[in-house]
DNA sequence: TATTGTTATACTCTATAACTATA
DNA sequence: TATAGTTATAGAGTATAACAATA
């Protein structure tokens, strides 16, 4: 019994798919990442740049190898990322005196200023993304998300978007 | 007064960066998407395939052009995606009798079975992702996320990962 | 010989544009 | 002439592997 070709009276697509929290997390997460990318894009940066700037600010003098390790990316990719930041005058490579194979990474003064602008953009982003929630709800949400992140073994402050290598 | 090169007594990287809910959403969202990709990968699918299968199941007979419109991607990309699904025997292209330029898209019997397996994988994924929360907390989280999704104008069931075209 | 950083190469993904067949 | 789908081409992004400098 094959159904004859009935014309579809349904107009626009109804809710097609999943309704669970996992899907909402992935959907909102991708949306949040895209909106954040727009904001930092106005500062001439891509999201990956932001993570690197923060890591270098937190631990100045790290080697590129160490950064690659922490981010879970291949060292050659760090070369490209740092090239970009150095080209914009935000980061400096300094040959290590102790081991001249290493490059110690440091923010320039402009790098520090840019990182401040990024922080302001991030605050505005947060506020826009959570516009639907009042302060109490926001705090509740943060608590639930923090539990998930911890239980899932996510490294605080490191976005998984870096690692395109096998996760384990 | 320039600071002399002090050795860093800090060992492993401390929490470098952001702590807000927006970052947690992006971080957990990317993590969730990656874990889901692993699960459907065991069924021979990529996440984009899953969205297409669901859309075709919901509205059989749609044209590729209509799908491209809804997903926010260029029509040529739909060709590639459907090629993959048709090659795996999950989807059928049928020339429309009314307008022979159109391809009506339908799931095969195996496509329907595969979609069932995807649903089971999605349920397992949801459970694993939210392992840190009890049922009441999960429900509360879903409510908060649904509010955000609605306020941000996200289309229910459509993951933003499809559209690489300008968002507006 | 091992390690840091760099460069060269290849591969994947996707959008743009040209093309065909239908209308 | 316009539209649905396809194919061809080109560009961006990134991993792999070869390489140079230093240890």
UniProtKB/TrEMBL annotation, chains A, B:
SUPFAM superfamilies per UniProt: Winged helix' DNA-binding domain
PANTHER family, sorted: MARR FAMILY REGULATORY PROTEIN (PTHR33164:SF89), TRANSCRIPTIONAL REGULATOR, MARR FAMILY (PTHR33164)
Matches recorded under PROSITE patterns: HTH_MARR_2
Span of domain HTH marR-type: 18-150
Name of the featured protein: MarR family transcriptional regulator
Name of one Pfam family that matches: MarR
């Amino acid at each position: 019994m094959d159904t004859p070709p009935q014309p579809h009276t349904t107009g626009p697509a109804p809710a097609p798919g999943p309704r669970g929290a996992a899907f909402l997390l992935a959907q909102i997460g991708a949306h949040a990442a895209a909106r954040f990318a727009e904001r930092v894009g106005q500062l001439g940066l891509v999201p990956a740049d932001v993570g690197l700037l923060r890591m270098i600010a937190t631990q100045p003098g790290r080697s590129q190898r160490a950064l690659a390790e922490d981010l879970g990316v291949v060292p050659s990719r760090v070369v490209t990322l740092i090239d970009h930041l150095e080209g914009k005058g935000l980061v400096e490579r300094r040959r290590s005196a102790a081991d001249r194979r290493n490059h110690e990474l440091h923010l320039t003064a402009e790098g520090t200023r840019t990182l401040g602008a990024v922080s302001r953009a991030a605050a505005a982003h947060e506020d826009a993304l959570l516009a639907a929630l009042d302060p109490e709800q926001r705090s509740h949400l943060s608590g639930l998300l923090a539990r998930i992140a911890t239980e899932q073994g996510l490294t605080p402050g490191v976005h998984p978007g870096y690692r395109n290598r096998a996760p384990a």
